[in-house]
Amino acid sequence: MLLPEVGYARPSTVDEAVHVLASHDGARPLAGGQTILNVMKSRAAAPDVLVDLQDLDELRGIELAADGTLVLGAMATYSEVIASAEARARPILGEVCAQIADVQVRNRGTVGGNICSNDPTNHLPPLLVALGTTMTIASSAGERTVPAEEFFVGVYATAAGPGELLTKISIPAGKGDGFAAVTIGKDGTCIVSAAASLDGDAPRVVVGCVHGVPVLVRPDGADEEAVRRAVRGANLEPPSDVHASADYRRHLAEVVAARAVQRARTRRS
Amino acid sequence: MAATAPVGGKTVTVRVNGTTYEREVEARRLLIHFLRDDLDLTGSHVGCDTGNCGACSVLYDGTLVKSCMLLAVQADGASIETVEGLAEGDELNDLQQAFGAHHALQCGYCTPGMLMSATALLREKPHPTEDEIRKGIQGNICRCTGYVNIVEAIKSVGA
Amino acid sequence: MKVEGEREFTAPRETVWEVLNDPTRLAKTMPGVESFDVADDRHWRANLKVPLGPGGLKMSVDFEKTEERALEFAKLHAKGNGVGAIMNMDTAFHLSDAGSGTHMRWEADVHILGPIASMGQRVLQPIVNQQVSNVLAALDEQVQEASAEDGGS
Amino acid sequence: MTETTVAPPKPVVVEEGKPQKGWAGQNVPRKEDKRLLQGEGVFFDDIKRHEMGYVHFVRSPYAHARIKSVDVSKALELDGVYGTLTGDEVAILTDPFFELSVKPGADMKDYALAVGKVRFVGEPVAAVVAATRDLARDAAQLVEVDYEPLQPLVDARVAQSGGAPVLHEEAGSNVVWDGTFDWGDWEAAAAEADHVVKIKELHFDRFSSTPLECSGCLVEYNRGTGQWTMYCNHQMPGVGAIWMAPAMRVGIDKLRFVTQDIGGGFGNKICLHPYFVACCLLARKLNRAVQWTEWRTDQHTANAHGNERWFQDIEVAVKADGTLLGFKVKALDDCGAFPRYEPLGCIIWAQVTPGCYRWRHIRVGFTQVVTNKSPVSPNRGYSRMQHLWLTERIIDVVAHELGLDPVQVRKKNYVKHEEFPYETPNGCVYDSGDYARCLDIALDLVDYKKIEEKRVDAEARGKLFGIGIGSTLDSGTNNFGQSMILNPELQFSGNNEVATVKLDIFGEIVVTLGTVPQGQSHETTSAQVVSDILGCSPADVTVRAGHDTYWNSHAGFSGTYASQFAVTGLGAVKGATDMLAGEMKQLAAVVLGCAPDDIELADGTARMKANPEAALPFMALGAILNANNAGLPEDLNITLNCRYVYRPPFEKPDLERKYGNLTLTYATQIHACVVEVDPDTGVYEIVDYAAVDDCGKRIHPQIVEGQVHGATAQAIGAATHETFPYDEDGNLLTPNFYDYHVPHALDMPPMKTGYIESESPFTSLGAKGMGEGGGAGIHAVCAALQDALSSRGRPIVTDSCNPYHRVWSLLQDPAASRAGVEVVSR
Predict the structure, then answer these.
(1) Lowest-pLDDT range of B6-20, C78-92, D778-792
(2) Which sign does the torsion angle of CA B85, B87, B90, B95 carry?
(3) In A, which residues are within 8 Å of C85 by CB distance?
(4) Is any Cβ of chain D less than 8 angstroms from the Cβ of A101?
(5) Res D1: pLDDT
(6) Which of D8, D14, D9, D11 is nearest to D757 (CA)?
(7) CATH homologous superfamily of domain D44-152+214-262+269-302?
(8) What is the ipTM of this complex?
(9) For residue D139, what is the nearest residue in chain C, using CA coordinates?
(10) What is the mean pLDDT of residues D796-820?
């Protein structure tokens, strides 16, 4: 409601988009808008220019490569992921997307927006780190790729810097994934979340909502005690807020991490 | 690349319930304010300022969205359906009638958004289960009914 | 919100003290400084645009040095005014020798008011922690730079 | 996800009142629905005026601060800004609002905008009017306010301590009101008791029903007549005008309130007068229509919350067999920064002093204090809900500590069916009911006989299982004389409501109400009552939507509040319609040449009973009196436009003993709730739920059911997630629906409903007011959680709101909650 004044650009190619982003200090991409417009309503922060990505068909697709890598365009919406036959190659994706907010938000909100906003309560940052995802970032200098664990650099901050645009999310093949969260009400905002992947050597377990960025832990086994021990060993210093104290979050981190791994094991078997 | 130079506002052409409107809007104007204040289509409501309540839900090119989380400039060229477009003339459609018959509304403030969510759901799933109904209206807050009769009304249409 | 910590610098206490008391150097440790004015040796004002994902948070911050004991202790009060947020911060630094270097113990009591305080409780703490670690890293850099200059002079 | 099942499509019908012929009692289609279903309702924000200005309030970021200066010059420089208003102007143009309390509360000064000080985050300090909403907000950001921060007071428990900051220096104290209520003989009860159960402290959380439509108004000022018209959603305009007119130094007829559709109120739209006065001043100052729309964050931070209350040093006298003799308690009510509707909450609870129980010895020391938080307003279940939560907590703690069955303790101590009308220890008269019967129905609905099997099953799945009961009363139709118990100087007592029913020139029946509905279906139920009397169909009856002061169909207490429409509103409708029916018969008798008693009203006609062929359609009657009246007898003194004021039969209370009948009717709600708790996380789910209601004769069962559903959902929300906590600086931590989680469709448990109809002997229709409910869901959830956690160190549920983190704390440290509980046995 009642946003601050803002400039608006609607490029039709990624090149144009990164050009506008680079040439205006304070320009931000507008993907699904389900976070940034809310922030603007509160006038807590104000970008100078919104760069509307809706015409960038290059960012839309969901494709399954021959090697099993799933490539999501940054503008793929949650609903598109849920409905996509290709995305079922990694079924956890659709399952987690179906838990995000509500139909309206899932219809507009995008995978790229979810991870670029990197609100600690978002579902996808921990999930994508667990899945060993690689992000492709475009700028006027060309493209670069960043592994998910390096992509998230702080609350609301990612490796996609000024003048850069996340274009693709590449998820390697795999099926042994799990996700668990304690949320405010059913399918509500996460209080603590955890994603786990058992593909590869040791389990990759990632805890959300406990730090500015998702926290990756590598337990030495997939049994509950090993997972809980690893999470304990991460010495988390989670924030306290109205929904959970730091202690409670620390405790939940262990519980949901163990549950995420358990679900991953069930799926794999 | 002058075409992509940022602008503070622009003229948009939007089709709402079959009627085409052309208006000059500021870039910062949300679609809900555009509908309510510029087009005087006051059926869609505002119940929050964080995108949680769903009172402003409309169909946007056939897809259910919250019109408070979309800029009017983004909607340039789009086709929108709102509660005002549901009835055939003065004849309430089946869903509207079911809401009445089941007492699925009290104050009526959430009703327009709720009807649009139910409309989207029934188009996608003509015979939804109760869980699907609840999931379909999860983004719409009602403070009067506890959702009991809303669920019943939608169920009766999909039966 | 109270945050505190300790840090070691390789430079001697004089150098660290000098950096902590040099507004122009301090300015370089703050996030998104757009301009910086020094009124006198106890009062400064910084105009910041704190970089936050969805757009910058603009804030003008008035600093006042409220207490000091040379080479040992300094206390600053900062009052920031921005759209959607007011910040009040009291921060204190205690310096002591640590071999040839310096040990710094610091604490800050940060109060944030306004819509941001209510809206962003779940993110404020991580953001503050993040900004603090940025400031400390920058401080380290300034100390390095100052000691290089001292060494060179 | 678990499969959710719903209540049986029809409620379990157990006992119905006397069958009655006619429209009342039937589920006729709602008159309100068609417009609302088409988006054609008119809510205040839908109304526009030529060249109107939009108001945006500049709000305090501080919970407590002195205002050193307010500078609006930069805002005024902005293109499109029409003007501003500051606290300094308000202090000159208006007087402080009238306060209801005796000293010290009486000395607290409350204005439309902050004057000199701010006392809560979000308090309006200045207002800006501009050509668009956006611009008004832009300009508001340019208003420069210099504050000198003061220490905030956010915990009512320290409000009276030495170091506490004083919010209102004029009052010299943070206490609004305090007093002791002492009925029966507590000392004797304690001496007679086998056990005295002591509970150190219980806390009823702040929350509000958060109507989906926020508050607001469009105000026009008529320079020629000096009158203001407010198109708004004020739910109690009569009382609003009583506050506003003297403060604005104008006659009460200068203030015209107009409402049509209101998006929920639940008591949160009663205390809008500060905002409305600011808007009225701006409309006059700028000679322009101005419109103010409150946004969600504004509503949460700075409109109205429900009363927060602490109960301390509770002692309960119990016999060995579980008979409850009485209790004593110190109640400490936190009303936020300004009293406004308070201290009425300091007496309203006394309508339900003993709850549903027969104990006779009750002592309550009641203190209300101000804190640096949002002011409060009479939120659904107002003040009684807090007190009923106490009585229900007492029952469950006593049962828990003495090893008694909560069901049996309730049944043993409930007021018995045969004891009605039952006079409470403080002189209130419970009109009718059968609590034990309602409890049995509720228990049947949750299959209580198999509850132990279910517990075993849940435990096998690793869940903690609990069942809880909430027994409440929804007292309706206030005797405002109770305010005199707080302040003998107040000139308020009794109650009233108005309706006007006319037969118009074309035979149209038009009903004008004094009430201000916000979803309670007044148009529909009024039409049912009218059509039964006039012998027509509800479809033939036009009930005007909303409220308009200039319809002159209201009285001092008009409004929609306190569960009273079925009594006061419909009582007025019935009275007015009876008058009209009499006049129609008189007129028909003149025309048809017979006596009025020979006439009956049926099938839309007035006809001779003996000769139904001799009939005058309503249209003829309307036309004759209104437009073709030559030759009518001189002594035929009728208007066919009948205004009736319903006045319930109340006496002034005995102020000395704080004794008297404070309310007319008592609807019953007995709820049962079944929960399963995940012991690893504290997350819980309500897996079964039953609500049984008894509101006497039900005029429109479906509407009654709807109210039960809604009240239950709100109570479940309040019990699980809905709370307004503040940090130490006085920031509200749940200022919008992002952090303030209200139940969504997926969160609501399956809800089963049942009812009985114990008709009220005191009302014309046998109906009782209902709708607020007594918060039974809160009590039931708290009890169910306590039951579920019992096997884990027997913690006591001490808070009304129990989000997961609180449940986890109880699991982690049950001893902490038990430390405040003690049983002293003889």
Answers:
(1) C78-92
(2) negative
(3) 44
(4) no
(5) 31
(6) D14
(7) Aldehyde oxidase/xanthine dehydrogenase, a/b hammerhead (3.90.1170.50)
(8) 0.95
(9) C83
(10) 97
